[in-house]
C-alpha cells in the first residue's frame, strides 16, 4: 500500500474531493465559457447587429451529402467538449501528452452524452486524465502509450456512461414537461427553479429546452429561472469578483460557481429563491411568453439569448411556437417592463436581499463566491 501511495504521489494523482469536485469542475466551467458561451455571444452579436464578419460562414464540414457551415461563434461552440476536457486535465496537473489526448475524449463524451454532455465530459476526462498521468513517462514508447491509454480509457468510458447520463438529463426534461401541465402559478415556480438549477449544473439546459420544444408561458418561466441564476450569482458575488465576475456570470454562465456551490451549497439559495419568485411573476403577472427558438428558453442572459428569444417571439414566432398558436404582435410598454423586471431587475434585487440575509446569518462568508 505504501508503494502505491508513493506512486500516486510521484504521479501527482491526488484523490480528493477538492481536486475532483472543486478544482476540476471550476476549470471545466471555464472551458465551457471560452467555447460554447463565447460562441453563443458572438453569434448573437452577429445576428442582432448584422455584423458580417460574425455571420459569415468561415469553415465547412462535409459528411456524405450533408454540409455544415460554421461561423466564428459556431466554431467556438463546436469545440466545447474538447475545451472542457483539456481544462479538467490542466486542473489535475496533467502534462502535455495527456492534455492533447483529452481532445478526442472530450469530443466523444460530449457528443455521446446529448443534453448530459458536460457531465459526461467531466467524468470521462477526469478518469482518462488520471490514467494518462499514471502511465506517462513509464515506458520507452511513451509517445504511443500515453495517448493510447488516455484516449482508449476516455472514449471507452464515454461509451459506458454518456448514454445513461443523457437519459438522466432526459428524465429532468420529463419533469419539466410534467411541470408545464400545472396551473400557471405552480408551473411558473417549478419550471423556473428546475431549468434555472439545470443551467448552473454541468448539464445543458439549452439542449433540454430545445429537445422539449419549450415555448410559450413555460418558456417564459424557464427564461426567468435561468436569468435568476445568472444575474443572481453575478450580483451576489460582486463584492468578491467585481466587474469581471459580473460580466462572466451575467452574460456568460453561472456554472462558473459550481466549485463554490460544492464547497458551500448555501450560496445557491439566493438565486434559487429568486427564481421561485420571478417564475410565477413571469407567468401570472406579465404573462411573459418565450416564443422564439426553444433553445433560448434555457440560455438565460448568456449573450442575452433569453431576452432576445422573448423579443423575437413577439415579432416573429418560431415554427414550434407558431404550431402552438403563437402569432406576431407589437409589444407594449407592459411587455417591455415585464421583460426587464423578470430578466434583470428582480433577479438582482432578490438575490442581493436574500444574500444579505444569509451573510448576516453566517451561512455565506466572505470569499465563498470568489471565482
Helix and strand layout, with pairings?
Elements: H1 2-10, H2 17-49, H3 52-55, E1 59-63, E2 66-70, H4 72-78, H5 80-91, H6 96-113, H7 117-135, H8 142-180, H9 184-200, H10 205-212, H11 216-236, H12 238-250, H13 258-263, H14 269-285, H15 305-315, H16 319-323, H17 333-361
Antiparallel strand pairs: 1-2
Helix pairs in contact: 2-4, 2-5, 5-6, 5-7, 6-7, 6-8, 7-8, 8-9, 8-10, 9-11, 9-14, 11-12, 11-14, 11-17, 14-17
Over all CA atoms, what is the radius of gyration?
A: 21 Å
Number of strands: 2
| Shape call | globular
Enumerate the spans where pLDDT stays under 50 for 5 or more consecutive residues. Answer: none
Helical content, roughly? over 70%
SSE string, helix = H, strand = E? Answer: HHHEEHHHHHHHHHHHHHH
- End-to-end distance: 37 Å
Strand order of the largest sheet: 1-2
How many structural domains can be distinguished in the coordinates?
2
The major pleated sheet works out as:
2 strands, antiparallel
Strand content: under 5%
Q: What would the average pLDDT be, to the nearest integer?
A: 91
Give me the secondary-structure category.
mainly alpha
Provide a count of the helices: 17
Salient structural properties:
371 residues; mainly alpha; two-stranded antiparallel ribbon; 3% strand
Q: Explain this structure to me?
A:
The chain is an all-alpha fold and 371 residues long. It folds into two domains: 2-166, no CATH class; 182-361, no CATH class. The chain has 17 helices and two strands. It has a two-stranded antiparallel sheet with strand order 1-2. Strand 1 and strand 2 form a beta hairpin. It starts with a helix and ends in a 10-residue tail after the last helix. The mean pLDDT is 91.
